[in-house]
Specification:
Elements (H helix, E strand, L loop, with lengths): L1 H19 L2 H4 L3 H20 L1 H12 L21 H22 L4 E3 L4 E3 L9 H13 L2 H14 L7 E3 H18 L4 H14 L13 E3 L4 E3 L7 E3 H4 L3 H11 L2 H17 L9 E3 L4 E2 L11 H13 L5 H17 L1 E3 L6 E3 L1 E6 L5 E6 L1 E3 L4 H10 L20 H19 L11 E4 L15 E2 L20 H13 L2 H17 L9 E2 L9 E2 L5 H13 L11 E3 L5 E3 L11
Antiparallel strand pairs: 1-2, 3-4, 4-5, 6-7, 7-8, 9-10, 11-12, 13-14, 14-15, 16-17, 18-19
Helix pairs in contact: 5-19, 6-7, 6-8, 6-19, 8-9, 8-11, 9-11, 11-12, 13-14, 15-16, 15-17, 16-17, 17-18, 17-19
């Protein structure tokens, strides 16, 4: 850094000296012309040398042809205005969910719409998971009355004095993230920041381990981190690496650097333990700070590690290049090892790597053609990454042109668009809803082709048998999240069509007439059977992303906001402290 400063100062001094000793220049009228010619030549050569910075504008100036990226239709008119009718339908759905919860279970962590009752995550009581997760959606939708009642509950009744063990990750992304987003979107109402700061301080003890990696659970009243006995004391990689957006923004707002330092140290530890492929196992030892031999996947326990690599880079206005590097390495690893094609129609999917013991006792890795619904976040994430970390220009066109992206950017864009297509294919069920997990056909899999679909199927599903866990739909948002991002980056109305089809299926099969929405046990059975639970992410993510899909593109623009993994929008900012990776 200092060398660069010195070089710039020297160059400036030399130029000034040239002006001071410019008597020779005045002796001939030819020199100014030569000077300008030389200067122009130098500028052209400099621009040519740094083609990555000027490629698109230069191509346009020189009349170079551009073409649409693969996966971008050439025969549509981009749409950026709101679809008010569809927005109103989504708002009505949100009110149907929220008002039922408020009527039957206000303040409880979770809601069961069929029994019309609530439940909490600990015997000591709850911390308003559903309220904190929903309040920013009310602000975005303009539901002033509902917002004021929810705000009053936060101000007067929300208490973290609960002598019970709460999941560190879930509490951070849902409650802390929700409070921070509500603080920003409300015009900085101090009640939300006060509660967020208190909660963040109560969570901090989870980082008091030998490695600095967080423990899975936190006793909020005792302010003690608690290991998860069900996972041998290990923490899932996603849980450890999906606290950073929230804690960094909290540090930025409060000027308490400890929030930033604790969260960032986690990334330093994980980076030191990573393999050259950029892929990571789903469990890490919080004591030793080392990955454990366990599956490699972008589904449960792994997904948001990859999601937050990109989002940490974007959150601080693309100033922390270490996250761009980690993200690029990971995406190359995914393409090298996990991207696969379906057997017949060549649907692109993201497989898993599972460890197994070979005959000679070594650890080998077996590719499994399984994709969680959770993986469907990756389609939109890849497209967003392509137009930011993979861009050659600062402001990428909508839709992007090929000359605006790097080779990796083009690769990621195409994979993202194709993955969205695959995720939409998994919605082609009897209900129009996607299963929790899909398996894909591979040669020699022994699957009866007369029973299973040609490309993907629900493992264990057979007529007359109880549905497997994989067959359920629990109101998940990941495909809608990707559809929203894809629409914002292309303006292609087909993505709105996709989202509307999913919304209609939710309305038809998940809506409970007395209020609220319930999960469906088997997406391939009509009429449906319900699991009596309305996940908090229905109001935090699913309906929020649907609303934004049909909103004007100026609402929460992607270049100004980063959505945490629970869809709480946090503003992009320039860090005020020197980060450990700087």
């Amino acid at each position: 850094m200092e060398e660069g400063v010195r070089q710039r100062k020297k160059a400036a001094t030399g130029f000034a000296g040239g002006r001071e000793t410019g008597n020779e220049a005045k002796s001939t009228s030819a020199f100014p012309k030569i000077y300008y010619v030389l200067l122009a030549t130098v500028l052209v050569l400099a621009l040519y040398s740094f083609l990555a910075l000027v490629r698109s504008p230069l191509d346009q100036f020189l009349g170079a042809s551009t073409r649409n990226l693969p996966g971008v239709r050439a025969d549509y008119v981009p749409t950026f205005t709101a679809d008010k009718a569809k927005q109103d339908a989504v708002v009505e759905a949100f009110k149907h969910a929220w008002l039922a919860y408020e009527r039957d279970a206000m303040g409880d962590d979770e809601y069961h719409p069929i029994l019309r009752t609530g439940s909490n995550l600990t015997e000591a009581g709850g911390i308003g998971y559903t309220v904190a997760d929903s309040i920013d959606t009310m602000i975005i939708m303009g539901l002033e009355d509902e917002y004021q009642r929810a705000r009053a509950w936060v101000a007067d009744k929300l208490s973290f004095e609960r002598d019970g063990n709460f999941n560190t990750f879930e509490t951070t992304i849902r409650v802390l993230g929700g409070l921070l987003s509500a603080y920003h979107l409300s015009g900085e109402d101090p009640v939300f920041l006060e509660k967020a700061q208190e909660l963040g301080s109560r969570i901090l003890p989870v980082f008091e381990t030998e490695s600095g990696l967080p423990l899975s659970l936190i006793n909020l009243a005792l302010r003690e981190g608690v290991p998860d006995i069900h996972s041998s004391g290990y923490i899932s990689t996603a849980e450890a690496s999906t606290l950073q957006l929230e804690f960094r923004y909290l540090a930025y707002l409060t000027d308490e650097d400890i929030f930033w330092e604790k969260a960032e140290n986690v990334m330093a530890v994980l980076r030191a333990s990573a393999t050259p492929s950029g892929l990571v196992s789903i469990f890490v030892d919080s004591k030793m700070g080392r990955y454990q031999t366990s599956p490699i996947r972008l589904g449960s326990r792994g997904d948001s590690y990859y999601e937050y690599l990109l989002k940490q880079y974007l959150q601080t206005n693309q100033t922390e290049l270490v996250y761009r590097e980690m993200y690029a390495t990971a995406m190359t690893g995914i393409h090298t090892h996990l991207v696969q094609r379906g057997l017949f129609s060549q649907l692109l999917y993201i497989a898993e790597l599972n460890p197994h013991q070979t005959q000679n006792g070594d650890i080998g890795w077996r590719l499994t053609p399984k994709q969680d619904h959770l993986v469907c976040f990756l389609g939109g994430s890849l497209m967003l990454g392509a137009t930011t970390s993979g861009a050659l220009v600062h402001n990428v066109s909508i839709p992007p042109q090929t000359n605006e992206l790097t080779e990796q950017g083009e690769r990621d864009w195409l994979t993202g668009a194709e993955l969205i297509k695959t995720c939409m294919a998994t919605y082609e069920t009897q209900t129009g809803l996607a299963p929790e997990i899909a398996h894909f056909r591979i040669p020699g899999d022994g699957v009866d082709g007369s029973v299973a679909p040609a490309d993907w199927y629900i493992k264990g599903a057979s007529p007359g048998s109880p549905p497997p866990f994989d067959a359920r739909y629990i109101l998940r948002p990941e495909t809608i999240e990707s559809i929203f991002i894809a629409f914002r980056l292309t303006g292609d109305p087909k993505y709105r069509d996709y989202g509307w089809a999913i919304f209609q299926a939710i309305e038809k099969h998940c809506r409970i007439p007395t209020g609220g929405y319930a999960s469906v046990i088997n997406v391939d059975q009509v009429p449906v059977e319900y699991d009596d639970k309305m996940e908090t992410f229905l109001m935090s993510e699913t309906l929020k992303y649907l609303y934004l899909l049909f909103a004007d593109s100026s609402v929460l623009p992607l270049n100004e906001y980063v959505f945490n993994t629970e869809a709480h929008p946090l503003p992009v900012f320039n860090p005020t402290i020197r980060t450990g990776f700087s």
